[in-house]
Amino acid sequence: EFTDNGLETRYAAWTRSGTPVTVTASFKRDSYQIFSHLGHKLSELGAEQGAAALKLTDAPVYLIPVKRSG
Fold first, then answer.
1. Furthest CA-CA distance within the chain
2. Which whole-number Å values give the CA distances from 9 to 49, 54, 65, in the listed order?
3. Using CA atoms, how far apart are residues 55 and 34, in angstroms rounded to an integer?
4. pLDDT (tens digit, 9 = 90+) per residue, 43-69?
5. Rounded to an integer, what distance in angstroms lies between the CA atom of residue 30 and that of residue 67?
6. Which end of the chain lies in a sparser environment, N or C, as judged by fewer CB atoms within 10 Å?
């Protein structure tokens, strides 16, 4: 967990396991954009009731809160 200039919380996640694992994690927001360690946009993660399942590999992914207009 880290912050961008103290304005929003962002997450980095990965596993040291040689096998992909799925974890359930708690999140502060409802929706996050997931980026690869190379900066490619992968998908959007919806966190229902503050939690979501996330498949992890040995390559880090970065989760950035989605800002909704309105």
1. 42
2. 18, 17, 8
3. 11
4. 998 877 788 899 999 999 999 888 765
5. 10
6. C
